[in-house]
């Protein structure tokens, strides 16, 4: 009986040390500060919207935000100036990515449930075209200069779509399903997070081909990415461990890193003031100052747990956080003014 008891005591001590470590790191991670970096201006209810909320985009001219309400199978169209929902496009199939096409005044929606991508008239919300991808159409980026839409989808692909012709023109294969990605027009490159392959894929846009695969090393679950197009740096958000990592676009070299909100889902870089904004399900908005290769966290602002999806609109000095419905509380957008 003596040996099992010694073993139990050893296990208990080990678990106690782990618990103490978790509590210590947890307290440090949960510290709230820098609240003056964001000022909550208003909340806009999203009546009848249930389930997970995914990506958002904005029509700058009219001050309208488009929200992919994945769990609700709808696209919510919100006037952020008037503070109300203008319209809801129903019967979608797990909408994930969304983009506003300003030249044609159209909305582009990528559906994860069936791979279909829909174009809608932004004035009357009538469907104007459909492009079918094999499966799981996810994140979307629109390049207004080339009028091309990039869509991550399936087991590993980036679809290139001519926005004016409503036509898929190219397809670029990847090693796994793409999550967040960004376009650097000066370098003519696309940088794509491929978490299942533990990679950051680099695509040459002129030749529409994969040219590099950067290993994520010890970091896992690289979902969101933001970009500094002036200095050509990437900001990668990892969930395991929760880290913000800055990478040089030309070399793939890590320039800096910092702790990050857990369950990070969206990440933005404001080139006007050199700030990085991150939102995660861990219940915080993390804000950093990026300058001269230094990455300093300046704020950790408490939010509702599970509020992961956000949108930075530098032109309006707004940061928008989407909160899903919970119990008697309806889904809503929290509209913050940036400092």
Structure characterization notes:
Residues 1-29 have low confidence and may be disordered. Strand 16 and strand 17 form a beta hairpin. The chain is globular. It is mainly beta and 339 residues long. It has one helix at residues 2-29, and strands spanning 38-46, 56-59, 64-69, 74-79, 84-89, 95-101, 106-111, 116-121, 127-132, 140-143, 148-153, 157-162, 167-173, 181-184, 189-194, 199-204, 209-215, 220-228, 233-240, 242-248, 254-259, 264-270, 275-280, 284-291, 294-302, 310-313, 318-323, 331-338. The chain folds into two domains: 33-50 and 216-339, Methylamine Dehydrogenase, Chain H (7 Propeller); 52-215, YVTN repeat-like/Quinoprotein amine dehydrogenase (Methylamine Dehydrogenase, Chain H, 7 Propeller), CATH 2.130.10. The protein is built from one helix and 28 strands.
Q: Biggest sheet: strands, sense, closure?
A: 4 strands, antiparallel
Shape: globular
Q: Report strand %.
A: over 45%
Main structural class: mainly beta
Helix content: under 10%
CATH architecture annotation name of the largest domain: 7 Propeller
Number of helices: 1
What's the end-to-end separation, in Å?
64 Å
The CATH superfamily of the largest domain appears as: YVTN repeat-like/Quinoprotein amine dehydrogenase
CATH top level label of the largest domain: Mainly Beta
Count of the domains: 2
- Encode the helix/strand succession as letters: HEEEEEEEEEEEEEEEEEEEEEEEEEEEE
What is the CATH topology of the largest domain? Methylamine Dehydrogenase, Chain H
């Amino acid at each position: 009986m003596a040996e099992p008891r010694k073993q139990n005591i050893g296990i208990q001590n080990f678990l106690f040390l782990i618990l103490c470590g978790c509590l210590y790191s947890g307290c440090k991670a949960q510290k709230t500060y820098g609240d003056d970096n964001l000022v909550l201006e208003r909340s806009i209810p999203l009546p009848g919207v249930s389930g997970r909320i995914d990506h958002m985009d904005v029509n700058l001219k009219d001050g309208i935000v488009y929200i992919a309400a994945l769990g609700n199978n709808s696209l919510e169209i919100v006037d952020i100036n008037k503070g109300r929902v203008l319209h809801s496009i129903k019967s979608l199939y797990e909408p994930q990515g969304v983009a506003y096409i300003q030249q044609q005044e159209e909305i582009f929606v990528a559906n994860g449930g069936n791979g279909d991508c829909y174009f809608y008239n932004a004035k009357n919300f009538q469907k104007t075209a459909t492009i079918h991808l094999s499966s799981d159409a996810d994140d979307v980026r629109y390049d207004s200069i080339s009028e091309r839409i990039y869509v991550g989808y399936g087991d590993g692909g980036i679809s290139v779509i001519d926005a004016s012709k409503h036509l898929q023109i190219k397809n670029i294969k990847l090693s796994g399903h793409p999550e967040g990605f960004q376009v650097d027009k000066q370098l003519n490159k696309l940088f794509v997070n491929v978490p299942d392959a533990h990679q950051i894929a680099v695509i040459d846009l002129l030749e529409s081909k994969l040219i590099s695969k950067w290993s994520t090393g010890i970091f896992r679950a690289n979902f969101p990415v933001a970009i500094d197009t002036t200095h050509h740096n990437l900001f990668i958000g990892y969930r395991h461990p929760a880290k913000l990592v800055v990478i040089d676009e030309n070399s793939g070299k890590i320039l800096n890193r910092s702790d990050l909100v857990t369950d990070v889902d969206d990440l933005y870089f404001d080139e006007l003031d050199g700030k990085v904004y991150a939102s995660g399900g861990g219940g915080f908005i993390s804000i950093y100052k990026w300058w001269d290769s230094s990455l300093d966290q300046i704020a950790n602002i408490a939010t509702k747990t599970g509020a992961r999806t956000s949108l930075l609109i530098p032109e309006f000095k707004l940061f928008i956080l989407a909160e899903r419905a919970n119990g008697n509380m309806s889904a809503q957008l929290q509209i913050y003014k940036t400092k």
